[in-house]
Amino acid sequence: MTSYQLASVVGRRARAARLRRLLRGKLVLVAAGAVVALVVLAAVFAPLIAPYDPNAVDPMAVSQGSSAAHWLGTDDTGRDIASRLLHGARPSLLAPLVVTVGAGLVGTALAVAAAWLGGWWDRAITAVLDVVFGFPGLVLAVVGAAVFGAGLKIAVLTLTIAYLPYVARVVRGSALKERNLPYVAALRMLGLGGGRIVLRHVVPNLLPLVLVQTATAFGYTLLDVAAFSFIGLGAQPPTAEWGLMVAQGAPGILAGAPQESLYAGLAIVVFVVACSLLGAGLSQRLTGGER
Amino acid sequence: MTDIPVLEVEGLTKRFGEHTAVDGVSLRLASGESLAVVGESGSGKTTTARMITGLESISSGTVTMGGRPLPGPRARTAERLAFARRIQMVFQDPYTSLDRHQRIGDGIAEVLARHAPLHGAELTRRRDELLDQVGLDRRQADSRPRHLSGGQRQRAAIARALAVEPELLVLDEAVAALDVSVQAQIVNLLAEIRGQRPISYLFITHDLGIVPHLCERVVVMREGRIVEAGPTAEVLTDPRDPYTRDLIDSVPRPGWKPRRRT
Questions:
Q1: CATH of the domain at A123
Q2: Is B213 within the bounds of a domain?
Q3: Taking the C-alpha atoms of B146, B148, B152 and B156 in order, what is their torsion angle to the nearest 10 degrees?
Q4: What pLDDT score was predicted for residue B187?
Q5: Domain for residue A117, yes or no?
Q6: Which residues contact B257 (CB under 8 A, 6 or more apart)?
Q7: Structural domain tally of chain B?
Q8: Closest to A244 measured CA to CA, from A253, A254, A235
Q9: Which chain A residues are within 8 Å of B99, Cβ to Cβ?
């Protein structure tokens, strides 16, 4: 075998290994993306595809297992679990979406303001964020529920506040670095105003980071919203919501009818895992491809 | 040429705590004249440039440009724009001195729109004129900085600075990060630009080799002070200060052997 042939064989093998690696990485990403897309579509078109009204009780079909009429069975009042899961996807997804988008927008605004204005402003904003960071989200939620009454809106508000520091801390660090890059000094010298430099130059450069940060947080906020509903601080009955369904199905687990908790729990786990994988893949792509 | 100097610096001093980085530097730059500030790293030449351009606060001393002092940090928009037309700067690192998300052409157009009453086709024509002047074409105008070479980026930075038609261009080690052949191209470009329009250069460098190509006068800095000043030819052929002699000896040339400094 000549050295040329040897090199070509080695090259082919290395190429095949690289392809396998790439495919495996891509496959996970594609699968995670498919799960997320499917759930989002199900949430959007829930009224069209759900076989039953999610709140229609049926005293004749209580706590049933899977059947042709009720694919995932019924709960303790005879409501169709599949229909409730589909409809439940709406608040279960929308609430964390509002939390992440809200925390992303306000957190980025605060972080950029702190980094850009510096001095007293920076210290004040950072101090407030540190105080919020010190409070666990749950404590905030309990306080919010005590003051305003329990509900999904209050849960969303408290979670948004609780997630602010997570976004703001990371973004502030990058904004500081960005502000000290020569291009910002150059733009200032060229006579551009501070507002324009921030909005047209600094923020767009921070956008990939904000996107990654909020995308990875989305899975966790979904879990938190579900947890709040589970302990009674989020969605209230008879709303169909995944966390609440896990709680409402809990007595059934001991009574031999675990389907409601089981399927709602599965929906949460599968979706959160898919979100995390997608977020991780996204962050690799967006931060790896920069510059 | 007018009698009012483009730049007049008197007793400029910068202290960082106990350390004095720049110590009583005075410079004078007539309209259309070019001055090199030479010195090793840490000699205070970049700090001097940053104080002159308003990027660094001044501990003591004065900077006047065309008879006016530097605008303060709370200066009004009109004042800042007027200052921008007096002085512009080209930075050392062309990788970080351009916004990485902005196309080269858009960056120049943005500056043009800010300073000149130009719109639409007229603005585009002026933009292309500037790009052409620094040797960039339409393809590069539509590129983002990461798709350009170091030399091309530095050309873009020069075009952007020229967009405001400044009286004085500060070049802070503007060719130091480039390959030697690209350095020569940029130095030639700068010489060419000076032939076409009235502009002064303040050329900050550690490399004496390129100074004679661009500057009539040279100032040598060491440890924050000016140790020697004079016409370039004079300083280079008959240096009075031993430090200047060291600097001249360290310029690579045929038969040159690096010598350890004592």
A1: 1.10.3720.10
A2: yes
A3: -50
A4: 92
A5: yes
A6: none
A7: 1
A8: A235
A9: 183, 187, 201, 205
- Mutate which of B47, B87, B96 to disrupt the A interface (most A C-beta within 10 Å)? B96
H or E element, residue B124: helix B120-133
Q: Which residue has the tokens 């608040």?
A: A91
Q: Which residues, other chains included, contact A231 with Cβ-Cβ below 8 Å and sequence gap of 6+?
A: A247
Query: How many other β-carbons are positioned within 10 Å of the β-carbon of residue A285?
Result: 13
Residue A287 pLDDT grade (very low, low, confident, very high; cuts 50, 70, 90): low
A203: containing domain = 28-288
Q: What is the mean pLDDT of residues A93-109?
A: 95
Give strand pairing partners of B22: B14
Domain count, chain A: 1
What global pTM score does this model have?
0.81
Q: Is B77 on the interface with A (CB under 8 A)?
A: yes
- Residue-range definition of the domain harbouring residue B18: 7-101+168-249
Residue A109 lies in a domain: yes
Those residues with Cβ within 8 angstroms of residue B92's Cβ, 6 or more apart along the chain or in another chain = A182, B172, B173, B174, B176, B177
Q: Residue B71 falls within a domain, yes or no?
A: yes
Mutating which of A190, A205, A287, A291 best tests the B interface, going by the most B Cβ atoms within 10 A? Answer: A190
Q: Do the domain assignments include residue B112?
A: no
Average pLDDT rounded to a whole number, residues B217-223: 92
CATH number of the domain residue B235 falls in: 3.40.50.300
Predicted complex ipTM: 0.89
A13 in a domain, yes or no?
Answer: no
- How far is it, in rounded angstroms, from Cα B19 to Cα B12? 15
